[in-house]
């Protein structure tokens, strides 16, 4: 079981499947929608995902004619995206997962749009908390 929520807790979900594919997306839409240099998503079956608390906060935005982005209308947390030509699959935003196993990323896409200022250099210092 995988569980997750938005930042404010107004939206919570449970996924009764397993995540087998993790995709790091560098496309410009994902970067702007997330406010980060990439998005980390997992395609999952919508029928296995249950929103256990949404308090009417779930909002949608069509970023292109066939793709909607779903987020919490209270805190703005991106939850998933969904294509109209594949309504049975959603692309869960993995930063919202609070419980359950998430495997290492399977691959990266739209690398030609990758932010040139970001590098996944594993030699850089790492801190458990904010350095400041």
Textual characterization of the structure:
The structure is a single chain. This protein is mainly β. The chain has one domain: Metal Binding Protein, Guanine Nucleotide Exchange Factor, Chain A. The protein is built from one helix and eleven strands. It has one helix spanning 28-34, and strands at residues 2-5, 12-15, 23-25, 39-45, 49-53, 58-64, 67-72, 78-83, 89-93, 97-99, 107-109. The chain has a seven-stranded mixed sheet with strand order 6-7-8-9-4-3-11. It has a four-stranded antiparallel sheet with strand order 5-2-1-10, with no helix packed on it. The longest helix has 7 residues, at 28-34. The radius of gyration is 15 Å and the shape is globular. The chain starts with a strand and ends in a 23-residue tail after the last strand. The mean pLDDT is 92.
CATH architecture field: Beta Complex
Amount of helix: under 10%
Task: Quote the CATH topology.
Answer: Metal Binding Protein, Guanine Nucleotide Exchange Factor, Chain A
How many strand units?
Answer: 11
């Amino acid at each position: 079981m995988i569980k997750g929520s938005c930042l404010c807790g107004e939206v919570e979900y449970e996924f009764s499947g397993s995540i087998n594919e993790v995709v790091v997306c560098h496309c410009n839409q994902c970067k702007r929608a997330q406010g980060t240099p990439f998005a980390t998503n997992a395609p999952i079956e919508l029928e296995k995902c249950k929103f256990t608390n949404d308090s009417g906060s779930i909002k949608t935005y069509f970023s292109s004619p066939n793709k909607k982005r779903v987020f919490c209308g209270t805190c703005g947390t991106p939850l998933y995206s969904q294509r109209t030509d594949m309504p049975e699959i959603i692309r869960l935003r993995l930063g919202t997962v609070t419980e359950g196993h998430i495997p290492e990323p399977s691959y990266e896409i739209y690398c030609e749009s990758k932010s040139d200022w970001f590098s996944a250099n594993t030699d850089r210092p790492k801190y458990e908390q904010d350095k400041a």
